[in-house]
Amino acid sequence: MMKKELTELEIAESIPDLWQPLTQEQKEILAKDFTIQKYKKNENIYCEGETPTYIMCLLSGKVKIYKDGVGGRSQIIRVIKSHESFAYRAYFAEENYVTAAAAFEPCTICLIPMPTIVKLIQENPELSMFFIRQLSKDLGISDERTVSLTQKHIRGRLAESLLFLKDTYGVEEDQCTLSIYLSREDLANLSNMTTSNAIRTLSNFAAEKLIIIDGRKIKLIEEEKLKRISKIG
Q1: Separation of alpha carbons 51 and 98, rounded Å
Q2: Phi and psi torsions of 203, nearest 5°
Q3: Each residue of 144-175: pLDDT tens digit?
């Protein structure tokens, strides 16, 4: 873990949602405890069962939150995008992590001790509201995904996952290639299906000219049709 001397502007750009509500005195407290950690591709960031100690904010890269299920099969619960905060729910719930997190690609993450965050929350109602809003949004997303992943058929689940990745990470300059290159296994784990089913369904989508596959690159050609498939389930 690196303790970096960053300017207030650099910290503000790194964690804008957390930084903005703070007073100058509170910003100085947070800046004092601000540390940076780098993770390699596929490296674990935290593991299920560990005790939470930090709030984490993704500065660069992409992160998956996942849980190992029956037979060692993983389920990706959600994905984290740049400047998004994560890993704090378990601390507020006074429990150990019930999920794990790993890097999709090389990542740089800001870590702030949770006791520091709790102190700032107690002093700053606006910061409290930030966490209430964020936890509420996450719960809503979780509720929607639970229904989708348990009630939709395979085609609907995979179509939804492709659209979800586009909404989360965007597309490249061609406006259709997803800006994340997932393994077939990760795509299957995101869609609650076996890897073989994910490969077969992707091939069917490509044959129907809904997408173009180039290795791990996926281009969304018929987004409206994918939306209809996702909606029908």
Answers
A1: 10
A2: -60, -40
A3: 888 877 788 999 999 999 999 999 999 999 99
| Contact partners, residue 152, CB within 8 Å, separation at least 6 | 160, 230, 233
Distant-in-sequence, close-in-space partners of 54: CB < 8 Å, separation ≥ 6: 87, 111, 112, 113, 114
What DSSP designation does 71 have? G
What letter does residue 20 receive in the DSSP assignment?
A: T
- Specify whether the CB–CB gap between 103 and 60 falls below 8 A: no
- Which of 100, 96, 106, 20 has its CA nearest to residue 59? 106
Q: How long a stretch of residues is the chain?
A: 233
Type of residue found at 106: P
* Dihedral sign, Cα of residue 88, residue 89, residue 90, residue 93: positive
**96-143: pLDDT as tens digits:** 999 999 999 999 999 999 999 999 999 999 999 999 999 999 899 888
Residues 220 and 216: their CA atoms lie apart, in Å, by 13
In this structure, how many other beta carbons lie within 10 angstroms of the beta carbon of residue 58?
24
pTM score = 0.85
Alpha helix ranges (H) inside 75-183: 89-92, 114-123, 125-151, 154-169
Q: Which helix (H) or strand (E) is 187 found in, with range?
A: helix 184-191
Question: Dihedral of CA 131/165/171/229: which sign?
Answer: negative
Residue 210's contacts (CB-CB under 8 Å, 6 or more residues apart) are 220, 221, 222, 225, 226, 229
Distance of CA 50 to the CA centre of its chain: 19
Cβ-contact 108, 43 below 8 angstroms: no
